[in-house]
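Practice set, problem 2.
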Amino acid sequence: MGSVDNSKYAHINTAVFDFVLPDSSVLDVGCWTGDLGRKLVDAKKCTVDGVDVYPEVLKEAKSSGYRNTYCFNLNDPVNELVIDTKYDFIIFADVLEHILQPGEIVDFFKDRLKENGKIIVSLPNIAFILYRLKHLFGNFDYKDVGVMDSTHLRFYTLKTMNKFFEERGLRVVSRVCYNEVAPQHSFLQILKHLWPTLFTLQFVFLLETVNGR
């Protein structure tokens, strides 16, 4: 496996961080170098485990305070991954859009929740106004990062996100319209509340299981 650019996904989604309660046990699926886990350990005294495909980024996550790390390709058969621990929170931050069979992955990890445990998911919104306009004129151009990241295998609107959760036996407890934008685009912070499906770059969800499923 070749080397990776460790800086590409090195950021913390503050909405994801805010959903996690202090002193919780957390599984960070697609943890990358562990920036999120480091902050959860330092600021909220959480116990954090991580899953990622690259040994080199897991080494960094371990040095960031992750208790256990699991090297696994989420596009491989998930029954080959052994995780016996139960968690208060399982996080999929910018992960499910990169997976061939995201439903199977969510179903597998959902069984690793403690009673009353929660799942946190962040997903990019393909229906953001910029991409609606580009697609209207036949432009479906991939980028290195962002909603049109060239490594994305799935694309979601808010409607299909909600359908996906319902099919997985998950109920939305809370939702955040998340725009990590430059200061000159701060007007989006206002517009996202008026028309979230059109002016939100990413949705972040706190989810619970329905009837213990």
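Problem 2, part (b): a different protein.
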Amino acid sequence: MQVSKKLPNNVCIQPVSLDLVWSIRRQVMWPDRDVDFVRVKGDSDAVHLGLYLKEKLVTVISIFTDGKEAQFRKFATLEAYQGKGYGTLLLHLVMCELRENGYSRIWCNARKAKTGFYERFGLVCTPETFAKGGLEYVVMEWRSEN
């Protein structure tokens, strides 16, 4: 996956190694857990992208594809950079790229408290919910009209 949109001069989006992805995931999502807790099945086959501000990795996202469906998982922004639009920029560019490449369904497992954020990207809640690690999740998706 190549995110090819014009970016601000101090921002770069590029593939990220699994070690860096796991480090950011752990710091942001589960700092009290072992790194094994943030590893997921299929990580070695997914595309992992990071947004760098100057030379600092501040946001990561992992894309898992199956046919014309794509799931983004473990989307995380370092706490000091949250609320500044970096995660929004990365997800916007990823969603555009996936849509432009013909994916008919893009989905994620969203923390229920974050559904409003994902709705801004055209994702809607499905009836599918579950709990993990003491948190409530809902499957959210975008589907093409075709």
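Answer key, part (b): The longest strand covers residues 56-66. The chain has a mean pLDDT of 91.
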